[in-house]
Each structure stands twice: as C-alpha cells, then as structure tokens.
C-alpha cells in the first residue's frame, strides 16, 4: 500500500465546515494526479468530521481506485445546489421555521428535534451515492486500516469518534473524547454533519448527536489512535495559512458598526469548525519538538512521546470573502429568512460560506484547493513518498 511503507502509516484528516469542504476536493484532485493511473487509496487511515466526514467516507467507499473516487466527489461538488442539501423551497423553509419557533420560542412540546433547516435532501443524496458495504470490502482487501467519523454527544458532552477497522482496534477514552468501534453507516454521517441549530441532531443508540466539530478538542487524535504516525490535514480555514509571522497581531481595524447577528454567528461557527484544529496542530508541533529531545532508542521503541510528521494544506484566500461575492446565489427563501441577521450583506459572508451549497461557489473553492495543492506539489510528493510525476 502506498501510504503504509517502511513502517509509515499515513492518515488523512478532513475537517468540517459545511460548503467549505468543497476546497478539500480540489486538494484531493491534485493528490490523485500525483498517483499512478488506477492507484488505490494512499491513506491507510482516513478521518473526517462534519462535511469532511462525507468526503472521508466517499474516499473509503472508493478505496480501490482513489482517482475514480475523487472524480465522483468532484462531479457532486461541482454541480451542487442548496436544494440537494436542505429544503430551500418556500413551503419547506417556512414550515421548518414555524416548527422551530413553536418549539424554541413558544415552548410547544415536540417529539422530534428541531432546527432552522430541514436536511432531508442530504440524507436522500447520501443514500443514493454512497455504498457503505464497500468500506468493509476495502478493509478486508487491505486498502484501508481504519476510517472514522466524529460526532458530538449532546447528553454526554463528549466528542465520539466512530470508527471501522480492518481488525480489532483498542477503543480509547480521554477527557471529553472517546473512540467507539462500529460499522459506519448513513446515520453516523448525518450526525457528524448536523451543524448546531442549523440541522437537526441524530439519534444513535440512546443518545442524540450533532456536528463532530463541536468541542472536538483534539481533531488529529483519532488518526493517531487508529495507527497513523504521519498525517495530512486538509483544513478549510485561511487562518492556518495566513497567521501573522512570529505570533504578531494583524493590523488594527478601523472603527466599525456594531456586529450583526450573522457576524457573531460566523465567529461562533469558526470557533466550532476551525479553532480546535489550529490549536491541535500547534500542540502537535510542540510535542514533536519535545520528542526530538528524547534518546533515539526511546523513540524507536515507542516509549514516551513519539514524533508525528504533519503536513497541512489550507486556503490561501479567505473563504468568507469568496462566499460574500456569491451570496446572492442563496435561495430567495433563505435570503429572506436570514436578511434580518445580516447574513445577506457582505459582512455576513462567514455564515454564508458554510451554507452556500451552490455550484459557482463550490467550483471556486475546488479551483482554490487545486492551486494551493499545486503550490505544495513537491512537498506532498516527499511527504507521501511518491515518485515525481513528469509532464
């Protein structure tokens, strides 16, 4: 297996972020071009969260031909429309809004969880396009070691990594995060991608689960528990690519109007989807430096800390600004619903960047992902131990 040679086990981590996950597809398309035609999956361990979980399981179900799997992902993301993910017709939006108001503002009891949007179309799309039985086939064929999907338990307040492995893999239990071995299916994906308040939570066994990015304090951790000793992280935040050198603050902003509800909501979403990943990468880099001071024999025998190579690819341009340019593509019903919050203004691009499942926007993110991956082409080849591609 390409990703599991000379004792190395490479993990792929796909973070969450709603429509922002289209960026990952652009990066993956370049990775596919670096591989020989018809090559199998180069990542023994694949971990996904939120919309990244959907991309992760799409790769896992096409592990026998990585390029073909990425091509299928590209076809879906390049032709997306909001009504494939959530009901955007006037009757659907108004009915869902009324249910949300009745349950959360008027206090009318409801046996079903409520949310701002009805994501039943996403469930139908995933049922049609993903064949979960192919994950077990890939595991048995040795094309995968393990694949995981993270979700957040609302009752336990724990980040749960549901994983399916080639063999029995020891579950883990840490503070607020656990690993559970199971057979992955549609409900795990729906739970992992249920953005808080926006999409309804999903019941798995006796607990209700929502978006896996919520309180996911260590996004890289599942890959390490599943055996990876080097990881490729494809993020969906430009913060990872454009942090001020030396930790210095950026330029001071001019005085501005008070923040809108959409701006506040955008920061809350970013704190859910982005900040923990940034902190975990920073912690991993510190641990690697610390591991470097250990005697070589201790590191080789697996005692104490171990060094984990990490490569990060993230947007070189702010996705909220790109989304703001395309904000008028939001369905008219949703624009009317969100107008009061300020989401339909240019300053509300952060919220829109998560909900804008429209082809013009997702294609621009795919193109950006390709550019960023091509800029790191040599680094990716070295990191994945791939032979140079000529031409």
From TrEMBL:
Residues 12-224 form the PNPLA domain. A motif (GXSXG) lies at residues 48-52. PANTHER family: BLR7027 PROTEIN (PTHR14226:SF57), NEUROPATHY TARGET ESTERASE/SWISS CHEESE D.MELANOGASTER (PTHR14226). GO terms for molecular function: hydrolase activity. One of its GO terms (biological process) is lipid catabolic process. It comes from the Bacteria. InterPro entries: Acyl_Trfase/lysoPLipase (IPR016035), NTE (IPR050301), PNPLA_dom (IPR002641). Keywords: Hydrolase, Lipid degradation, Lipid metabolism. A motif (DGA/G) lies at residues 211-213. This is Patatin.
